Amino acid sequence: MITTERLRLRTMSDQEMRRMIQNERVPELRQAYQEMLDGAVRHPESRDFYALWEIALRDQPGSIVGRLSFHGLSDGIAEIGYGLEEGCCGHGYMTEAVLSAARWASRQPGVRRVEAEVEADNLASIKVLERARFVPSGAMGEEGPRFLWQG
Protein backbone atom coordinates (compact mmCIF):
# COMPACT_ATOMS: atom_id res chain seq x y z
CA MET A 1 0.00 0.00 0.00
CA ILE A 2 1.14 3.52 -0.78
CA THR A 3 -0.22 6.48 1.17
CA THR A 4 0.14 10.07 -0.01
CA GLU A 5 -1.10 13.36 1.35
CA ARG A 6 -4.58 12.81 -0.13
CA LEU A 7 -4.60 9.27 -1.52
CA ARG A 8 -4.28 5.62 -0.65
CA LEU A 9 -3.10 3.22 -3.36
CA ARG A 10 -3.44 -0.52 -2.90
CA THR A 11 -3.28 -3.59 -5.08
CA MET A 12 -6.57 -5.35 -5.60
CA SER A 13 -6.94 -8.97 -4.50
CA ASP A 14 -7.46 -11.74 -7.06
CA GLN A 15 -11.09 -11.96 -5.97
CA GLU A 16 -11.63 -8.21 -6.43
CA MET A 17 -10.03 -8.37 -9.86
CA ARG A 18 -12.24 -11.32 -10.86
CA ARG A 19 -15.32 -9.34 -9.81
CA MET A 20 -14.14 -6.35 -11.81
CA ILE A 21 -13.58 -8.55 -14.89
CA GLN A 22 -17.09 -10.01 -14.58
CA ASN A 23 -18.65 -6.54 -14.31
CA GLU A 24 -16.63 -4.87 -17.09
CA ARG A 25 -18.70 -4.19 -20.21
CA VAL A 26 -15.89 -3.02 -22.51
CA PRO A 27 -14.30 -6.12 -24.08
CA GLU A 28 -10.82 -4.55 -24.42
CA LEU A 29 -10.78 -3.56 -20.73
CA ARG A 30 -12.10 -6.96 -19.69
CA GLN A 31 -9.27 -8.61 -21.62
CA ALA A 32 -6.65 -6.22 -20.15
CA TYR A 33 -7.88 -6.88 -16.59
CA GLN A 34 -7.80 -10.64 -17.23
CA GLU A 35 -4.21 -10.36 -18.45
CA MET A 36 -3.32 -8.45 -15.27
CA LEU A 37 -4.93 -11.11 -13.10
CA ASP A 38 -3.19 -13.90 -15.03
CA GLY A 39 0.16 -12.14 -14.56
CA ALA A 40 -0.43 -11.62 -10.86
CA VAL A 41 -1.22 -15.33 -10.42
CA ARG A 42 1.79 -16.45 -12.50
CA HIS A 43 4.21 -14.09 -10.70
CA PRO A 44 3.26 -14.04 -7.00
CA GLU A 45 6.78 -12.85 -6.08
CA SER A 46 6.26 -9.64 -8.08
CA ARG A 47 2.45 -9.50 -7.94
CA ASP A 48 2.33 -5.73 -7.43
CA PHE A 49 3.76 -5.23 -10.93
CA TYR A 50 0.90 -7.23 -12.51
CA ALA A 51 -2.17 -6.53 -10.36
CA LEU A 52 -4.53 -3.59 -10.69
CA TRP A 53 -4.15 -0.88 -8.05
CA GLU A 54 -7.10 1.09 -6.64
CA ILE A 55 -6.67 4.78 -5.95
CA ALA A 56 -8.93 6.02 -3.14
CA LEU A 57 -9.17 9.24 -1.20
CA ARG A 58 -7.13 8.79 1.97
CA ASP A 59 -9.85 10.08 4.30
CA GLN A 60 -12.61 8.16 2.45
CA PRO A 61 -11.24 4.62 1.81
CA GLY A 62 -14.27 3.46 -0.20
CA SER A 63 -14.14 6.42 -2.58
CA ILE A 64 -12.33 5.13 -5.66
CA VAL A 65 -11.06 7.97 -7.85
CA GLY A 66 -9.07 5.86 -10.30
CA ARG A 67 -6.86 2.86 -10.96
CA LEU A 68 -3.34 2.25 -12.11
CA SER A 69 -1.19 -0.71 -12.98
CA PHE A 70 2.25 -1.67 -14.09
CA HIS A 71 2.44 -3.83 -17.17
CA GLY A 72 4.58 -6.42 -15.46
CA LEU A 73 8.30 -6.12 -14.92
CA SER A 74 10.31 -6.84 -18.06
CA ASP A 75 14.10 -6.45 -18.22
CA GLY A 76 14.00 -4.11 -15.24
CA ILE A 77 11.40 -1.83 -16.85
CA ALA A 78 8.19 -1.07 -14.95
CA GLU A 79 5.69 0.49 -17.35
CA ILE A 80 2.83 2.32 -15.67
CA GLY A 81 -0.71 2.85 -16.97
CA TYR A 82 -3.62 4.64 -15.31
CA GLY A 83 -7.16 5.96 -15.55
CA LEU A 84 -9.50 8.20 -13.56
CA GLU A 85 -13.14 7.63 -12.73
CA GLU A 86 -15.65 10.01 -14.30
CA GLY A 87 -15.98 13.26 -12.39
CA CYS A 88 -12.56 12.96 -10.74
CA CYS A 89 -10.54 14.96 -13.27
CA GLY A 90 -8.98 18.31 -12.48
CA HIS A 91 -8.03 17.63 -8.86
CA GLY A 92 -4.46 16.42 -9.40
CA TYR A 93 -5.27 12.94 -8.09
CA MET A 94 -3.65 11.08 -10.96
CA THR A 95 -0.48 13.17 -10.90
CA GLU A 96 -0.14 12.47 -7.17
CA ALA A 97 -0.83 8.76 -7.68
CA VAL A 98 1.51 8.31 -10.68
CA LEU A 99 4.34 10.19 -8.97
CA SER A 100 3.98 8.10 -5.80
CA ALA A 101 3.72 4.82 -7.71
CA ALA A 102 6.79 5.68 -9.83
CA ARG A 103 8.77 6.49 -6.67
CA TRP A 104 7.67 3.21 -5.10
CA ALA A 105 8.51 1.19 -8.21
CA SER A 106 11.94 2.77 -8.61
CA ARG A 107 12.87 1.55 -5.11
CA GLN A 108 11.94 -2.08 -5.74
CA PRO A 109 14.62 -4.71 -6.37
CA GLY A 110 15.21 -5.39 -10.05
CA VAL A 111 13.69 -2.14 -11.31
CA ARG A 112 16.08 -0.15 -13.50
CA ARG A 113 13.58 2.43 -14.76
CA VAL A 114 9.91 3.40 -14.83
CA GLU A 115 8.28 4.22 -18.16
CA ALA A 116 4.88 5.11 -19.60
CA GLU A 117 3.31 5.23 -23.04
CA VAL A 118 0.37 7.39 -24.13
CA GLU A 119 -1.58 8.13 -27.25
CA ALA A 120 -0.13 11.25 -28.90
CA ASP A 121 -3.45 13.11 -28.73
CA ASN A 122 -4.13 12.33 -25.05
CA LEU A 123 -2.98 15.73 -23.79
CA ALA A 124 -4.41 15.26 -20.29
CA SER A 125 -2.41 12.07 -19.80
CA ILE A 126 0.74 13.70 -21.17
CA LYS A 127 0.30 16.55 -18.67
CA VAL A 128 -0.05 14.01 -15.84
CA LEU A 129 3.23 12.43 -16.88
CA GLU A 130 5.02 15.76 -17.18
CA ARG A 131 3.84 16.87 -13.72
CA ALA A 132 4.89 13.49 -12.30
CA ARG A 133 8.46 14.02 -13.59
CA PHE A 134 8.33 11.91 -16.74
CA VAL A 135 10.10 13.16 -19.86
CA PRO A 136 9.75 12.01 -23.48
CA SER A 137 12.24 9.23 -24.19
CA GLY A 138 12.22 9.82 -27.94
CA ALA A 139 10.89 6.30 -28.57
CA MET A 140 7.50 5.44 -30.02
CA GLY A 141 5.43 2.53 -28.78
CA GLU A 142 2.36 0.82 -30.19
CA GLU A 143 0.03 3.46 -28.71
CA GLY A 144 2.24 6.54 -29.04
CA PRO A 145 5.22 8.31 -27.49
CA ARG A 146 7.06 6.77 -24.57
CA PHE A 147 8.09 8.63 -21.44
CA LEU A 148 10.79 7.95 -18.84
CA TRP A 149 10.52 8.84 -15.16
CA GLN A 150 13.26 11.19 -13.99
CA GLY A 151 12.62 10.92 -10.25
- Percentage of β-strand residues: 35-45%
Q: Strand tally, please?
A: 8
Record the strand order, biggest sheet: 1-2-3-4-5-6-8-7
Q: Which regions have little confidence, pLDDT < 50, spanning 5+ residues?
A: none
Treating each run of at least 4 consecutive H or I residues as one helix, how many helices? 4
Terminal CA distance: 20 Å
Structural class given helices, strands, pairing?
A: alpha+beta
The string of secondary-structure elements, in order, is: EEHHEEEHEHEE
Mean pLDDT: 93
What gross morphology would you assign? globular
Main beta sheet strand tally, sense and closure:
8 strands, mixed
Question: What gyration radius follows from the Cα positions, in whole Å?
Answer: 15 Å
**What is the helical fraction, as a range of percent?**
25-40%
Protein topology:
Layout lengths: L1 E2 L3 E5 L2 H10 L3 H16 L9 E6 L2 E15 L2 E8 L8 H14 L6 E5 L5 H9 L2 E7 L4 E5 L2
Parallel strand pairs: 5-6
Antiparallel strand pairs: 1-2, 2-3, 3-4, 4-5, 6-8, 7-8
Defining key terms:
eight-stranded mixed β-sheet; 151 residues; globular; alpha+beta
Structure, described:
It is a single chain. The chain has 151 residues and is α+β, with helices and mostly antiparallel strands. The protein is 32% helix and 35% strand. The chain contains four helices and eight strands. Strands 1-2-3-4-5-6-8-7 form an eight-stranded mixed beta sheet. A hairpin with a 3-residue loop joins strand 1 and strand 2. Helix 1 packs antiparallel against helix 2. The longest helix is centred in the N-terminal third of the chain and has 16 residues. It is globular, with a radius of gyration of 15 Å.
